[in-house]
Amino acid sequence: MCGAVRFTARNVPSEYGACHCEQCRRWAGSALLAVTVATDDIAVEGGDNIARIQSSAWAERAWCGKCGSGLWYRVTAEGSLYGNTEIPVGLLDDTTGMSLVSEIFHDVRCQGFDLANDTRKMTRAEVFAKYAPGLPQEGENDDQN
After folding, report:
1. Mean pLDDT by 10-residue block, N- to C-terminus, for the chain (145 residues)?
2. Which residues fall within 8 angstroms of residue 82, CB to CB, at 6 or more apart?
3. What is the pTM of this model?
4. Domains of the chain
């Protein structure tokens, strides 16, 4: 919002997803609508103004330290998703041709929050089984929520 942090992203896919987990809901105020971009494809200006928190055992969240705008969710733990950054779609200047194709943590979404698109849906258990076997599930025994 304030311009203290700017970024340029290359190789941005045309498909994005929604995350309904408890942390994303608290961070974004609703589902987080984000596109996955390789961290190496993001160039950031104003890095001194970025605040971060290790929000789980496997990822960090970042925001502008001046105005509070959310910047990204970034996987920090080794594994199949390491090296990915989730950029909120609302931060992109041009979303022409982009479409919502997936929803994760669909079983814990806010009551009545049903998106119109016909999306691939995964439950909390399915997400953890596929991407983070053996890790504690967010929202269960997680003191950082």
Report:
1. 96 96 92 96 97 91 96 90 93 96 94 88 90 60 35
2. 75, 76
3. 0.85
4. 6-90+98-131 (3.90.1590.10)
